[in-house]
Amino acid sequence: MSFDASKYIRKRMINEEILRDAGIYDPSWEHDNCGVGLVAAINGIPSRAVVEAAINALRAIWHRGAVDADGMTGDGAGIHIAIPREFFMEHVARTGHKDNGERLAVGMVFLPRLDLGAQETCRCIVEREILKMEYNIYGWRQVPVDIKALGEKANATRPEIEQIMFSMPSSMSEEEAERELFLIRRRIEKAVLAELINDFYICSLSSRSIIYKGMFLAEQVTEFYPDLDDKLFISDFAVYHQRYSTNTFPTWRLAQPFRVLAHNGEINTVRGNMNWMSCHEDRMESEFFENNIEDLKPVIAKGSSDSAALDSVFELLLQSGRDLPMVKTMMIPQAVTPDVSSELTGLYGYCNAVMEPWDGPAAIAAFSGNWVIGGMDRNGLRPLRYTITKGGLLLAGSETGMVSIPPSDVQELGRLGPGEMIGVNLAEGKLIKDKELKAELSKRADWNSWVGKSQQLDEILAKKQEMAPQRPSSDIIRRRQLLAGWSLEDMELILQPMVETGKEAVGSMGDDTPLAVLSSHYRGLHHFFRQNFSQVTNPPIDSLRERHVMTLRTRLGNLGNILDQSADQCDHLLLNSPVLTNSEWTYLIEHLESKAVIIDCHFDIDGGENSLKNALEEIQKLAENAVRGGCEHVMLSDSRISESKAPIPMILAVGAVHSHLVRQQLRTFASVNVATGECLDVHHFAVLIGVGATTVNPYGAEWAIVERKEKGLIEKLALVDAVNNYKTAIETGLLKIMSKMGISVLSSYRGGYNFEALGLSRSLVVDYFPSMSSRISGLGLNGIQTRVLEMHQRAFSNEVTYLPVGGQFKYRKSGEAHAFDGQVIHAMQHACNTGSYDSWKKYVSMVSRQGPINLRDLLDFTPKKQPISVEKVESITDIRRRLVSPGISLGALSPEAHETLSIAMNRIGAKSDSGEGGEDPDRYRLRENGDDPSSAIKQVASGRFGVTAEYLNNCKEIEIKIAQGAKPGEGGQLPGIKVDSLIARLRYSTPGVTLISPPPHHDIYSIEDLAQLIYDLKQINPEAKVCVKLVASTGIGTIAAGVAKAKADTILISGHGGGTGASPQTSIKYAGMPWEMGLTEVHQVLTMNGLRETVVLRTDGGLKTGRDVVMAAILGADEYGIGTSSLLAMGCVMVRQCHANTCPVGVCTQREDLRAKFEGTPEKVVQLFTHIAEEVREIVASLGYKNISELIGRTELLAQVSRGDSALDDLDLNPFLYRLMFKQSSVEVTVMQEEWKFPTHLMHRW
User: What's this model's pTM, rounded to 2 decimal places?
Assistant: First the structure.
């Protein structure tokens, strides 16, 4: 059957619109990784050799791109070269024009191919804008293309590709001509957009260079564009790019190179950068553009990818008078480390004063003006290697040997390090390396003198006479703490460890409490924000081992015009940290004097139903008026609350003021600083800064420290040291949260909205946290006001106040609900110990009577068919094979517990996962009774602890752990007290040494790196399948698409509720998303991309009943991980002391005396999975189906149900209930028996 292009496009666009409306998919979540490089003639003389070398190099990096299932549609490739004048003048002659000797300009244009009317409209707009500048148009040229080089999908979306040729006065300099053409292109783009034409794109419009690109494989660039094979195509430089995208829809404009650069990497700070760029636009002025500056706005087009956004700002700064090395230094600077010279420190200080760094993995190849350069990000997280030939070529790119150069012709081989550059000045015919380039940049101005205009606030505050920490009365403190929702548990388990150790508190066993929006207890607003993190497409960074490239340095005050270059841009205040003690806050206000305005953040408790809304509008007006009046520092404080005044949640206050100042084009004129009594843990600080706060003073936390010191609860530390320890813990924690996103610089994190609002209404998020994702819409301003007023009444209703015990971190009878409370645990263990299915039903009934804890608790089954007999449903044996015991390391578990799990799962033909850290080779042999103690799944984690060839060859599946549900963006952590001789031997370490895996796999910095590891693992064990473990997050669907294209067999979606042996409490509580959200997104996005049938989907993270399993199946999963319940079946009693090595029942300890108390058996675990399978069988029968396969993805079998609470009923769970049709997976469970083969369409390329 022939491919129907129009049907394909129509279906894809409909599906995409469905998922966008549901909040399940957004094109901005797409990622791409790539191969990139450049070739330059060092003498600046154009030649055919340069072009041919670039074409050959592009063909050589095919493995850094991806291929659609048709074997022909690539993710994009292209080449950027100089305009070959002789070639184009031949074509000018064919239009009937003669060479007038003027400057030749050529535009490479993508036009809407299937809409002839829109085509002509676009041509008219292009011609009109060129003629307005009185340039002479030679004519249009239809670019010859060979569509046989394209796959069906690429051809379906192929644009009409044409070139417009025209002349410009030769009296204009090249710089002037390029600036004029930049303006013309921006005017054309805006005019076409006004006509509502989407399929129009100008690849290049230049008198110097031209870009050929498209959605083909790298080696097909000359097949598709025969122009490039013409001997007249000569150039003095070439920049090339091969793309690997998470998207399968061929979007031609997203192919690279862009107008300036080709980028391999991921800008982790792009949300913050784009937000701040919109602020900088308000103050842009340039002598080069004068009254035309509005034509350049918005600088970043709506819907731009991170690479396109980076390119747009690069281009703006270049056309405003800076050269390429300077712009690279400004936007992707080197880290300022102790070994950096004072001259360079001054240069980087100036760059950081002008704008926020674009931070994240980046290897760039770029051309502009006389320069062609290669450059690296501050962490060096993408490879860029170079070769200098004796024949006078510079070759730089992602790989060594992309161009075959005889060894005798190699003059030098090298690679760029973090933050380094190499370039050729084509006008001067000179190769310049990093040190020389930066030395030249450092001499362009007296940067140190310029930076000297900055005021170092730390030095100023240090000169003040130190004020002893003070506090109000205990009664006032207690009422403030009650208002903030604090408990004794917060004091003991969160604050005390930070004060004593200067580090975040550590916990274990994961989070089994309700999501904030589902809780019947008060939760601070920060609980509704879930931290984003990096996985696969861009790595998190290591805040421990890479601390030297990270900074919390904070600038306050009035920011200048980014297009300017003057000492005045450095006239602002600097702090080394955004965290201020009470004395620092007081001195800061004294120092700022009239430049600061203090705004009280509270609302009248008797102000009516709109009291909070009115108060927010009032503080917005006060901030706006103050800034318009010359104020440079807005100081928000909630310290003046009273019996009649309730505090505005400070996150809401900051979001309101920050977003309002942005909309009023005033944000760059002032800093937004916060003093709050509700901020205690690291996550709260991160949210405040993430939504726009410049500095934060947690006066309430400091009061608590002072009071605890006076009561003798802090014994070994002086009060000043206790406060400083707390501040250090917060700063270290902020670095860790930034590092999860791969962000090194706080200024690029600020205002980046790197969270998902879970359970806040979409309208509230749009108003106060624009661009933040909020897929599950819920609580609005009125709901927040009601909750705050309830807490206010509690705090001020009694004469004697005391803090509640708590229950967030450990189960308390009067505290927060837990999925695994004592009664539930006892009921489940009784069912497993006795084998009684009636007892299991009682357990399930007990679970169902709990209040809602997970999102799935608000859903129920809606049968569409008549029930059938249970006997007609697939067997318990078959169902059990779909169940998995997730990765729990030998180290977190005792050897006895770890082996018991493996034996149990092998007995029922299911799979257990070794977790990180290896496995004793003695377990690779069967026991005398025939039991197999070897884990069927062997995990490969970032630390590679215990990974050997023998280990990898004794399994049915290899799992690459990218992230863990309880602590995504961080590495595994095994306290030294649990590293005994056995663990040390298996992990090739030393007993007693704490083992912390790095956050990233250091051989996986991109999707193509993951594809390489998958390939390598399949070579070492061809019989094993490969699984990639991800954690549910915003945009995980697009990441999973990339993983599927990397040839993974299984994708595991872990939820935030998964267990852990040891993790920071703030990670357990605030990072990651429910598996329901991640699974739904992955299933639907893979379906949209035609990839769903190629992989098995597995999920885990708090599943505990057959109902949970069936829910997961309906939401798209093929297999189901049961972790915490497995431990409970072996006797775990959830004392949450795993990290302390004091498990009283021997499940999670290495102490021999405690291990002797272990009473778990394989039979108990088998009974757990049998009960679950039997329950699944009954539910499947009640729905009228014969097996689980028939249920997968059938979301019409679910509906949201009322729980008798208006707040819960207002939650919008519709995103779970959308369904795209997909072909039933042919892999499913039987994937374990299939033979993996290397894709045939790539065979010839190995």
Answer: 0.91
